[in-house]
């Protein structure tokens, strides 16, 4: 993986072990971001999490939350994700955190193998993303990283490696997004030298982002937080495109949503029943695949333009045959 470089944003990660922190002094000492322990297991909450979140935010530090995994099963992993999401909600909600939620996975429970680790990790990651709406990142250390296969490369990694040398490549990652380069006692030093951070009594984990503070903020900016003053306004053409899209969605909803009081998209079976009742399809026996049913409904509702027809034709031979039959008046 890549080495550290001058100009990278500097950060720390903390828990209740650090006690009371003077976040204004932390910010003044060149710290741009902080990851805060929120929870562990299915019930534990870090006693300093809410206080640390408020203090770091007020000091102008970019804040993220992390959860330490104890799970030995996918069911337990989902319950841990629920605990993490609830902790985040109690600290202001996901909108109050500028950095993504973190899965801290560094310990295998008794009886687990690599396949179990994959299953637990993926269950937690997908569940926390479902609960928060934000794609999480993975914290681990270089010795444990071998437990993650290439499928985990879809997630940014926060790698721990207490050395002046960069971490070695792993199967999942060739670059780190965040690097924990010291625990405050061993490992590499801060850009200005030393390992101490003003405002924190005692050792604290030291981290670096692969980019500047501005690049870090831009990489994980929550666009829903932008205001008209802070973000770019839509152009007239973009507004018209949005209105056209809204109208097309409303037209589709009117036909799929027979009761008028549901929020589309409905489940496939309900969509098939509604389509048959309205006459848009006459049978589902030969069009049992959900995508074929929806293509036929879109076409018969007048919502398939030439671009969509060409798009659908690029699918499987079965899908191409279905759209060709509709266009030729045989559907």
Automatic annotation (TrEMBL):
- Keyword NAD assigned: no
Task: Please report a single Pfam family linked to this protein.
Answer: Glyco_hydro_25
* UniProt-listed GO biological process terms: carbohydrate catabolic process; cell wall macromolecule catabolic process; peptidoglycan catabolic process
Q: Which domain of life is it from?
A: Bacteria
The GO molecular function terms of this record are: lysozyme activity
Q: What is the lineage of its organism?
A: Bacteria, Bacillati, Bacillota, Bacilli, Bacillales
Show the coiled coil region(s).
235-262
Which keywords annotate this record? Coiled coil, Glycosidase, Hydrolase
Query: What is the source species?
Result: Paenibacillus cellulosilyticus
What is the protein's given name? Lysozyme
Family under the similarity heading: Belongs to the glycosyl hydrolase 25 family.
Task: Fetch the SUPFAM superfamilies from UniProt.
Answer: (Trans)glycosidases
């Amino acid at each position: 993986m890549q080495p550290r470089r001058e100009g990278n944003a500097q950060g720390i990660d903390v828990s209740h072990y650090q006690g009371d922190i003077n976040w204004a002094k932390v910010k003044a000492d060149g710290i741009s971001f902080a990851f805060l322990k929120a929870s562990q297991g299915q019930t534990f909450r870090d006693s300093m999490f809410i206080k640390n979140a408020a203090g770091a935010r007020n000091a102008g530090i970019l804040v993220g939350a992390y959860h330490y995994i104890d799970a030995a099963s996918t069911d337990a992993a989902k319950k841990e994700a629920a605990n993490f999401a609830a902790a985040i909600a109690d600290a202001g909600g996901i909108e109050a955190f500028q950095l993504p939620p973190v899965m801290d996975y560094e310990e295998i429970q008794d009886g687990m193998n690599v396949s179990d680790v994959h299953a637990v990790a993926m269950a937690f990651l997908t569940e926390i993303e479902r609960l928060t709406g934000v794609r999480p990142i993975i914290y681990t250390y270089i010795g444990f990283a071998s437990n993650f296969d290439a499928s985990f490369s879809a997630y940014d990694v926060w790698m721990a490696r207490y050395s002046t040398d960069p971490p070695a490549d792993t199967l999942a990652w060739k670059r780190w997004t965040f690097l924990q380069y010291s625990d405050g006692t061993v490992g590499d030093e801060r850009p200005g030298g030393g390992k101490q951070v003003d405002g924190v009594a005692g050792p604290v984990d030291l981290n670096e982002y692969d980019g500047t503070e501005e690049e870090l903020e831009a990489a994980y900016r929550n666009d829903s937080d932008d205001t008209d003053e802070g973000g770019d306004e839509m152009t007239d053409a973009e507004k018209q495109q949005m209105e056209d899209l809204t109208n097309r969605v409303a037209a589709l909803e009117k036909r799929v949503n027979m009761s008028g009081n549901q929020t589309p998209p409905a489940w496939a079976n309900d969509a098939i029943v509604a389509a048959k009742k309205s006459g848009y399809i006459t049978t589902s026996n030969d069009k049992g695949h959900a995508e074929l049913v929806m293509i036929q409904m879109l076409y018969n509702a007048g919502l398939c333009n030439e671009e969509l027809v060409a798009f659908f034709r690029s699918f499987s031979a079965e899908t191409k045959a279905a759209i060709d039959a509709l266009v030729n008046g045989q559907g």
